[in-house]
Design goal:
There is one protein chain. This protein is mainly alpha-helical and 540 residues long. The chain is built from 24 helices and 8 strands. The strands form 4 sheets. The protein has a two-stranded antiparallel sheet.
Amino acid sequence: MPYLDSYSGNWTSKEARHLLKRTSFGITNVLVSEATTLGLETTINKLFEINDLPEPPLKSIFDGTGNDEINDPGANYGETWVNAPAYPTISEGENRAKIYRSRNRSLYAWSFLQMQNAGISIREKLTLFWHNHFVSENINPHREYYYMNVLRNNALGNFKELVKQVTVDTNMLLYLSGSKNTDAAPNENYARELLELFTIGKGEAVGNGDYTNYTEDDVVQIAKILTGWRVNGLKNENALNSFFSNWKHTKGDKTLSHRFNNAIISENGENEYKDLIDTIFEQEECSRFITRKLYRWFVNSDVTSEIETNIIEPLAEIIRNNNYDISPALKVLLSSEHFFESTFCMIKSPIDFMLSVTNSLLVSAPTTSIKEEYDFAFVLYLATTDLNQSIFHHPDVAGWKAYYQEPLFYKIWVNSYLLPKRLDYARIIVTGGDLIIDEKKYNVPPLVPVLYIASQIPNAQDPNVLITELSNQLFNYPIIQSQIDALKDILIPGLPDFEWTVEYSNFLNNPADEALKISVDNKLRSLIAVMVQMSEFQIM
């Protein structure tokens, strides 16, 4: 089996759609057509282009007296609040907690807009990957924004360098108690997660306090190495910057265990943590650890011994040879025969699912106002949160269970409680209606341009052609005749094919006929609403 040999098969819209589905969030036919024209190699290069960071989130709520309106003195409507003080000054009658909620809402909506509008770029998919890898949470929107910028700015870059930046980021220092880690009271929280979840993994237990990749004494020593890093309070003008206090740092050399070849980390003040991370990354297992996680994110949850030997090991070697830059290895993986054979084996995450509904069906955020644009994206955030994938709020430090909990992995997304909600949310995006989340109602208009979608399908007068082409676009998966027949019964219940042919042809000839337009629109909307609930739409 060729495994990581470059893909040599036909490059068609089917292959382009598979690549783009795995590397972005929902795709349009325009993007598929562009990738098909570009070819595999050029599309891969375009995916990994490093572009400027997006403009920061904006204040999207009017000041006034409405239920959702709040006076935020840090920014006017349509301006960014990111440059305002992290601890806003308030006057009598103002509420700081409401200001934070307003900014958080803006940040969450803005994050979804970045994913929705990513185009042919892997950066947002990788940003979400790192967000799930380096789990961190903070109620302050400024610290969250700058933390995500660290992840976004390094998403396509160097794993080792990213670990160094995350280690002393204010958000992480607060989340895993690094800011409380002092010579007088060493705190092991971050030291443990640095090893177990962020760099090398625990491995199997081989003795009392001894694992394949590190020992409990390593956790103790690493906690000492990391002492002294502090975070300013929100009232401080440097609230978003960490700092090193030599007075709080454990002095002297620290010796790691035999798992790290008894390495000695010499006293080095504020640079000591960098020496530690360099030492950890001398262990080859770090490259295998991150490769497995990337494989589960982009390809398949099932890392067999065969995959370990033929995929993980050679990709890990590429990562090591590039000093932990991940892009070269990812390019090899995403260009490989193995990748293009690994189809329809992933259940879409809630974020993938909801954005595949919107993007595949040409539903974009309204551009009539910033408020409407952000409100649209915030509803997507609420829906995916309700489906158990909430950005900025993971269930625990290990991240979303779908990427590590055996044996279910991705199946966790579609249990008996979540699946009905998932299908109903998809239907409402197509048909319009009320999304009810946490007992609050959000009205969703029927935004899917079903008439336009049908107009882009040659010979859509033939219901068999219409349904087959829609299934190609939505599923990238061949459906059988019995499914086509069942879908025709949604489009034209109990009627012969020519009934659709006549009605749709009449509409094309008389587009100003309002009654005919409404009838065709309703039929198409009912058809597509069923298709996005089918099992074929849940996988990629």
